[in-house]
Input
Amino acid sequence: MALARLQSRKQALSFLRFLSDHGATVLLTAEGSTEIPDNDLQFMCNGVLHLTFEQEGRALTVLKVRGADFRSGDHSIRLGAQGMTVFPKLIPETRRSEYVSEPLSFGVPELDALLHGGLERLCHFCFRNTVTR
Output
């Protein structure tokens, strides 16, 4: 079992490296659970967004963005006919830092704001969802 998992991880890393070498920006989706975790996929990706649906409503959490700062915490989201609307958690600004980059916009202004402009070019990004049963 461990050997098969290692082979799967090597194949996935090789595939992601191939895509990066060819100038691709990769957006993956995953459904992790306690029975089948997606830790390997999260490790391989430069960024991970976690989507949840609780009784209080839907939320998005930026779990990681390798090499960049981001606004942590749960941010409320609404899915509608116009797409996704993100309501960033309000926090007092303590300092401002200039981020020099050429990000790719999601086309959702609130989500782009959470990621300081959008996805970093040539990165691997995973939208994560937890399956509850």
